[in-house]
Structures are given as C-alpha cells and as structure tokens.
C-alpha cells in the first residue's frame, strides 16, 4: 500500500468505516510509514477533539412540551372534544407560540392575497373609468360648442347671452367658435351681448387668433361701454398692437369724453410696459395729434 | 415507530425518550442556538406524528428522523434568514478565550473552543455530514439514506469536510 492510498483511508480507519479486510493493510502501512502516522495523529486530534465539543442538554421544558403536544395531538385526531375542558386543552395546544406564529403567517398570507387581488382588480377598472370620464368630458365640451354655434344666431338677446356663457367652461375653443364669437362681438346689436362676448373672448386670449380679432375689433366698436371694456382688456393682456387703433379712436371727434380719458390712460399704461416712467407723461400730449413718425415711435418704444 | 403508525400514538413517548437528545444535538450543531433547537425538536416530533403514514418501515427510524429534521431545519433557516447564526458559540468561546494562563486544561479547552468555532464556520453541507457521522454516529450508508445520495458520495464529502475543517481550524488558531 502506498502513502497516497493510505492517507485516503485514514479517516475511514479512524471512523470504523473501513471494511474489515482492509484494516490490517492500513495498520501495516502505518507501522512502517512515519509520515502517515503523523497524519493519522493530526487527524485523530481533530476527530477526537470534536467529541469534546460540549452540547448543552436540552432544557427541562422540552419534555413537558412534548407530552403536551402529544396529548393535544391525540385530542385533535381522536374523538371530537367532548367537554369544555377538552376544547380548552385543544385551544391551549393550538396556541403554542409556534402554532400561533404559523396561524399568523397563514392569515398574513391570505391578507396579502386579498390585498393583491383587490389591487389587481381595481387597477384596470380605474383606468377604464378614467378613460370613460375623459371621453364624456370631451363630448360635453363638444356639445357646448355646438350649442353655442346654434344659439348665437338666435333672435332673442337672452338666448345669445346664454350661448356666450357656454364658452366659460371651455379651455380651448375650435376656430369656428372663435369666429362666431368675434363676429358677435363686432356685429351684435345688443350691448350686453357684446360685453359678455368680450368677457368670454378675454378668457380665450391665449389663442393668437383671438388676440388678433380683439385688436381689430377696436375700430369697429361704437358703444362707449364696449370701447372702454375693450381698452381694459387690452391693458390686461398688454397687447401692444392695440396702441395704433386706440390712437385712431382718439381722433374720432364723436368719441365719448369719458371713454377718451379712459383710452388715454390705457395707451399710457400700455406704453409704460416698455417705456421708462419718467418720459411717459410728456409724449402723451403730443401723441394726441399724432404724426406717422410719432405713432411709430410710440409702438417702438 | 410502526406501532405508532398503526395508531398507538402513546408509543411516540418512547421514541421521544430515546431520541430527543440526539436530535437536539444534531439541531444544535447545525443551528448553534440552543433555544431554537429545542423548538425545532418539538416541530420534528410533531411532524413525525402528522406524517407517520409516510414512514415505510424500511430502513431505520433514525434515518427517517434526520430526514424530517433536515426539512424542518431548512424551513427554519428560510424563515430566519436574517437572524444571526451561531450566537451561542460566539458567546461561549469568548468566555473561554479570556484566560491567559498556560494551564494545560485551559489549553485543551481553548482547542475545543477553536474547533467548535471552526465547525461553525464550515459550510452547511460539510457540517451536516460531519455532525451526522461524528456526533450522531451514523454510518456512511445511513447518512446516504438521510441525504438521498450514495455511500460513495457521502464518503467523499466527509473527507472534504474534514480537510476543510482542519484548514479553518489552523487559520483560527494562528
């Protein structure tokens, strides 16, 4: 037997796992080989020390706990509990910490399952609802626009006012609606309707077409009320393009005196948006008799 | 156990008296925690009752017992993956490690403590075969049945485990 083979057998030799026939062979090799003897000693030291590793005795609780478990198990599997005492005993057995833990674990699992189920169920329904809501909202908005278009030509001023009021809830109006509103603003015979329309259009002023229409409308208004309201809107929007038509209005000898003052104020505040405040007062007196160059200066400044 | 299986549940007491120490030892070596090991002893015996119909009578009872114990252990480890293992060993070896005397008895105790720690550092698979072989005194053939493998495979694993243990032991010692 060579050393390599013997070394492989040493542990089994120690462990009594070696077949009886091979034991003498290993023993014989050990007799003549110091190296293997040392190896065996080293192995024996570890192997022997292992048995000295202390294992604590199981505590005294283990035995009674086992017998309690055993009798509980018997109660559980044999006859149905016949008395309250048995039920109580069974309950006690079921609610040992470990069982309670298991129970809690199961309940938690069920809870998680239910929660996940709810969540999964709710998710698509919610989005479907949202989609439905979105389409409905859009439909209502479309409906309002159609209503507006059909009512705005109504002979009754009240109906036309109502039509204009529909735009209040609109964030975006389609071009036809804008056109209809502008045309109402310019041509409606009723001042109240025109004022309401102006109010509605002011809300939609973020659209370039609306702004443009409002500026152009300045020249077409004759009612002092609408004129001054328009001037207000122009100031509110800081619409510089309106300065020219406003000045043109000042040239109109038929202009209401109150409106004239109002328009002057508006031009001033529109120019102030860009011009330095100190110079703003003076040019005014001159702009009242405008020349082309002055007008250009007014808008450019 | 066959009589237990036949319905004589009281016989389980006998098996408990005979085996619970060994079982506790196995669990203790695998877990390193005495208290948890006691709980698991309970669980293993409970499963024996509950699954007694799976005991075929072939092979020894203790092979079946260790088989169940391994499953219980695996469940326990899964559940407590984050808890610190081998706390008891650490505490215990600290107490021993404090002494500075060159007393022979103390030195021997140090040696044992070091080996205990080395064993705790061994991988689960290796520790398992060593515990079954050395502490539970199972034959390779029985271990093979517990682990559902061949005797040859067990033999190889025990050898490798021993080498690994020696290496760890020497590393800790120095």
**End-to-end CA span of chain B:** 48 Å
Judging from the principal axes of the Cα atoms, what is the shape of chain A?
Answer: elongated
Low-confidence region ranges of chain B: 92-101
Write down the secondary-structure element order of chain B. Answer: HHHHHHHHH
CA-based gyration radius of chain B? 18 Å
- Rounded radius of gyration of chain A (Å): 50 Å
Please write the CATH class name of the largest domain in chain B. Answer: Mainly Alpha
Shape of chain B: globular
Kindly report the name of the CATH homologous superfamily of the largest domain in chain B: Winged helix-like DNA-binding domain superfamily/Winged helix DNA-binding domain
Largest sheet of chain B: none
H/E order of the elements of chain A?
A: HHHHHHHHHHHHHHHH
Organism (chain B): Hymenobacter crusticola
Family (chain B): Belongs to the sigma-70 factor family. ECF subfamily.
GO molecular function, one term (chain B): DNA binding
Protein name (chain B): RNA polymerase subunit sigma-24
Question: What would you note in describing this structure?
Answer:
The complex is a heterodimer of chains A (301) and B (174). Helices cover 75% and strands 0% of the residues of chain A. Chain A has helices spanning 3-15, 23-32, 34-52, 62-77, 84-94, 97-151, 157-165, 175-187, 191-203, 208-217, 224-237, 243-251, 257-272, 277-280, 282-287, 292-300. By secondary structure, chain B is an all-alpha fold. In chain B, helix 2 packs across helix 4 (61-79), helix 3 (34-50) packs across helix 4 and helix 5 runs antiparallel to helix 6 (104-121). The radius of gyration of chain B is 18 Å and the shape is globular. Chain B starts with a helix and ends with a helix. Classes of the chains: A mainly alpha (301), B mainly alpha (174). Chain A binds chain B through residues 8, 11-12, 15, 17, 42-43, 46-47, 49-59, 61-63, 65-67, 69-70, 73-74, 77, 98, and chain B through 9-10, 12-13, 16, 20-21, 24-25, 28-29, 34, 37-39, 41-43, 45-46, 49-50, 88, 108, 111-112, 115-116, 119, 130, 133-135, 139-140, 155, 158-159, 162, 165-166, 169.
